[in-house]
Amino acid sequence: MHIEIHGRRDADAPTLVCSSGLGGAAHFWMPQLDALTSDYRVVLYDQLGTGKSPATLPADYSIDAMASELRTLLASHGIGDYHLIGHALGGLVGLALAIQQAPGLRSLTLMNAWSRVSPHTARCFSVRKQLLAGSGPAAYVEAQALFLYPPDWIAANIEQLQIDDRRHVAGFPPTDNLLRRIAALQAFAPDAQALAGVRQPTLLIANRDDMLVPWQCSRELAEQLPNARLECFDYGGHASSVTCPDTINTTLKRFLASVIHDTEYAA
């Protein structure tokens, strides 16, 4: 599996592990690097079967398997204590790690995540799968921005999005891998007892204008976790770490500082 380690290299540096959403790529977190690397060691990775981590995923692939793969990857690089930041599917990986009682996991930041897939989200994925089957990767990629970003942000960034679309089509993953990853995130549904056992300090970030995952999913998840708080923003869409990096980076740094230095978190 492809891994990148950025930022501080000293032995005392707190470590952040960033886990991406459905696309699985380390590149998703580029808007966070400058803000985080001065204070932290930042670990990025391409999830198995995506990007620079090619593999054929099994038919019964699961979020638990993704969590186990990440545990193995971190152990192989001598990474002990860490704070996980996960977006959507990556947040589910973080939840699975906490439920597995993974050693070294000190806190969770879950962005636009959920404990059980919403019927709205399931419908969105049904449409996306039909686009892929009927029209191919180019149509799937072009539609992807509609689920990730607010309309005005798309309009203001259309030239860069067109460049990104061509790159995504050129590096499109095997269709079976993508479908198995979608199936894994839709099947993930930990019960109340499992969620009640997650003791790590947890920050949930949601956006009221998220077209893919209703913000109420984060609220419901926060209510099920014993040591969680929710930050909900009006604007940003599903990928607010890309569309509103300054807001998200400030929020991340404030939460991480409160956890690491055991101080009160102030919204």
Automatic annotation (TrEMBL):
Keywords: Hydrolase. It comes from the Bacteria. Its EC number is 3.5.1.-. The keyword Hydrolase applies. InterPro entries: AB_hydrolase_1, AB_hydrolase_fold, AB_hydrolase_sf, Pept_S33_TAP-like_C, Pyrimidine_utilisation_RutD. Gene3D superfamilies: alpha/beta hydrolase. Involved in pyrimidine catabolism. May facilitate the hydrolysis of carbamate, a reaction that can also occur spontaneously. It catalyses: carbamate + 2 H(+) = NH4(+) + CO2. Pfam families: Abhydrolase_1, Abhydrolase_4. One of its GO terms (cellular component) is membrane. This is Putative carbamate hydrolase RutD. Residues 198-257 form the Peptidase S33 tripeptidyl aminopeptidase-like C-terminal domain. It is an enzyme of class 3 (hydrolase). GO terms for biological process: nitrogen utilization; uracil catabolic process. Belongs to the AB hydrolase superfamily. Hydrolase RutD family. One of its GO terms (molecular function) is hydrolase activity, acting on carbon-nitrogen (but not peptide) bonds, in linear amides.
